[in-house]
Specification:
By secondary structure, the protein is mainly α. It has one domain (39-194): Tetracycline Repressor, domain 2. Helix content is 68%, strand content 0%. α4 packs antiparallel against α6. The radius of gyration is 20 Å and the shape is flat. The N and C termini lie far apart (44 Å).
Length: 196
């Protein structure tokens, strides 16, 4: 049932997944999926946790920034494999219990870098929001809809928007590149340098 739900979500997105649709895909009665989960939200949580449990974290460097880069990049790449996951996490405010170990390590790395618990929590939230936003942008970039952002940033009226016109080439050059890891490194450096 879970693999069928993941396949449906990967192909058609969150809105396409209903318990009735899942039952049809499985060739069972409409109520059969409810024997395993109580609702669509519960099913989504089980799926997110299952995907998180599959994460394989490579060895971490001893330095705090390197450890954070490895952990966050692993989370990002794994979540990016299923574009619907970012939407589920953002809209439904869910969290996979199986990712708590990585979150603990991220907080430990921030503490090792000299941040207080309060500053580590704020820094974590900033990095999570950055990661989630990057995933949502990446999912949108993969859609078949033409990019209005590319159109507007690529050729703004130089009389009205001189700075944006001057930046158009830089925007265009980075539009199709996934700069997550590089940008994350910059964010971590900034957070550690100000000590939050």
């Amino acid at each position: 049932m879970l693999e069928t739900a993941i396949r449906l979500l990967d192909a058609e997105g969150v809105e396409a997944l209903t318990m009735r649709r899942l039952a049809t895909e499985l060739g069972v009665s409409a109520m059969a999926p409810y024997r395993h989960v109580g609702s669509k939200d519960e099913l989504l949580m089980v799926l997110v946790d299952r995907l998180a449990a599959r994460l394989v974290y490579p060895p971490r460097p001893r330095d705090p920034k390197g450890a954070m880069l490895v952990l966050w990049s692993t989370i990002y790449e794994s979540l990016a494999e299923h574009s619907w996951v970012a939407e589920v996490l953002a809209r439904r405010q869910m969290m996979a219990p199986s990712v708590l170990g990585a979150i603990e390590e991220i907080h430990m790395a921030m503490r090792d870098a000299g941040l207080s618990i309060e500053a580590a929590v704020r820094a974590y939230r900033l990095m999570w929001n950055f990661t989630l936003g990057s995933l949502l942008v990446r999912a949108g970039a993969g859609s078949e809809v033409p990019s209005q952002q590319r159109e507007l940033r690529g050729a703004p009226d130089p009389e009205r928007y001189p700075i944006l016109a001057a930046a158009a080439a830089a925007w265009t050059a980075t539009h199709d590149r996934d700069t997550y890891r590089e940008d994350l490194g910059t964010l971590i450096d900034a957070l550690l340098s100000i000590g939050m």
